[in-house]
Amino acid sequence: MVPTLFSDTIVALSTPPGAGALAVIRLSGPAAMGITAAVFSKRGLPEAAGHTLHYGTLRDPQDGAILDEVVVALYRAPRSFTREDVVEINCHGSDYVVRQVLALLLRQGARLAEAGEFTKRAFLNGALDLAQAEAVADLIAADSALSHRVALNQLRGGFSQELRDLRGRLVKFAALLELELDFGEEDVEFADRPGLARLLAEVRGVVAGLLRSFELGNVIKNGITAVIAGRPNAGKSTLLNALLREERAIVSAIPGTTRDFIEDEVSMEGLRFRFVDTAGLRDNPADEVEAIGVRRTRQRVRQAALLLYLFDLSEMSPATVHAEIQELTAGLALPVLAVGNKADLTPAASQEAFIADFQAHQPGSATQVPLVLIAAEQQRGLDSLQTALLSQVRGSTLENTAAASIVTNVRHARALETAAAHLAAVQAGLDAGSGTELLAADLRHALAALGEITGEISSEDLLTSIFTEFCIGK
User: Fold this and answer.
1) Integer Cα distance of 246 and 378 in angstroms
2) For tag attachment on the chain, is the N or C end more exposed, with fewer CB atoms within 10 Å?
3) pLDDT string in tens for the chain (474-residue length)
């Protein structure tokens, strides 16, 4: 038995609750093998090798009643997820069976695990660092190809290794600065100031790159909200249905049919979009209900990550489209995609003239609005729309997400911001010729911020906050 930090043994259901074909009940701790052996029909379980499967029955020692036929998987410390002895009991997925098995194991001395306690033990026993532990939760919650890929990269330690390398290089200089403080009265310099400046420039560049990746990482992890807005009867509900490939919204020729939000999600090339169909925008709503819908549309646009401004190509001019987009997004740094609908009702020559005129009316190179022409009812032009959507969201930054370190966690981003601020202070101190005490203090704070990400520096409150967000059994 390999010693760990914990003397008790925990147990929990590790598969989702509810009836199913199978359920997995997991134990971890020094008594995991003994507790299981006390209720398992097969002899010799405590002496069995790790990474083996054993078929048998679970019996209540008090009356000999058989609870279920099961397969028991054994993982011996330290070659397990928690680096403790771990047993996984594969039983039938009846709610009744699960309750009875858990009660039986609790009577034998196990205790119910807290939320995230298995992963917390893996962290505290050194199997994972804190960033990897958080990636476990991200991997469980991943609902797109990209979120899965980024979480898996972090779980395998790519992000953590990059941080450890940065921190390790800074630690060497920090140690030399601390040494200078020990010999302060002799006025000596052990830390090469030009070398520290070069290292700071490199490290600050990496930290800045990680911080820039957070915007993208947030999109990958949480998806992007794309609001479809425009005048009544422009075809917003038809477009939503076409994007979702189902009749999600009511479509009618009567203007103002949509009075409130209708939203749903769809995945495009690994990115999750939440499309929001909104009430049509017009200055004189037909009634108070529609007026409320228009106000809510404007509020929803202000909360969006991307605006699809949909307009009837056969009825609006390029100048009007630009004017309405500018009015709707005034004061917002919001990516906009102009989508001309009902292209099937507009001759090809008129479409070409519209495109040329639309480009001529662009307000400036810094605020270029891409234009896509579609026929939503006939589902024409949707491939071009999807390409434009992906381009607006990701640019070229997702090309190497499998290898790149992308920040998806708000806690990590805040720690990187703190580190960046203290590294900037070290640089300012070097430029100003500040004393060793100030340089060492700022460098210590920067190292602490980087260490918080991987858990090299952590508090019990932080760990509790992180792991209580995990599901029970993980």
Assistant:
1) 14
2) N
3) 455 678 999 999 999 888 889 999 999 999 999 999 999 998 888 899 999 999 999 999 988 899 999 999 999 999 999 999 999 999 999 999 999 999 999 999 999 999 999 999 999 999 998 888 888 888 887 777 777 888 888 888 888 888 888 888 888 878 877 776 766 555 545 557 788 888 889 989 999 989 988 877 777 777 788 899 888 888 888 888 888 876 654 444 444 444 456 878 888 877 788 888 888 887 666 567 667 777 888 888 888 888 999 999 988 999 999 988 988 888 888 889 999 999 998 899 999 999 999 988 776 655 689 999 999 889 899 999 999 988 887 654 444 444 457 888 889 999 999 999 999 998 998 888 877 788 888 989 999 999 999 888 767 777 787 787 777 778
What is the phi-psi region of residue 189: left when phi exceeds 0, alpha when psi lies from -120 to 50, beta otherwise? Answer: beta
Structure tokens at 309: 């401004």
pTM over 0.70: no
Distance CA 125, CA 127 (A): 6
Environment class of 185 (CB within 10 Å of its CB; exposed 0-12, middle 13-18, buried 19+): exposed
Q: How far apart are CA 319 and CA 307, in angstroms?
A: 18
Give CA–CA dist 139/471, Å, rounded: 12
Is residue 269 a contact partner of residue 399, using CB atoms and an 8 Å limit?
A: no
Compute how many other C-beta atoms are within 10 angstroms of the C-beta atom of residue 399.
10
- C-alpha–C-alpha distance, residues 332 and 316, integer Å: 23
Helix (H) or strand (E) holding 312: strand 306-312
- The alpha carbon of 198 is separated from its chain's Cα centroid by a whole number of angstroms, namely 33
* Sheet (strand 262-268) strand order: 262-268, 271-277, 224-230, 306-312, 336-341, 371-373
What whole-number distance in Å separates Cα of residue 251 and Cα of residue 284? Answer: 21
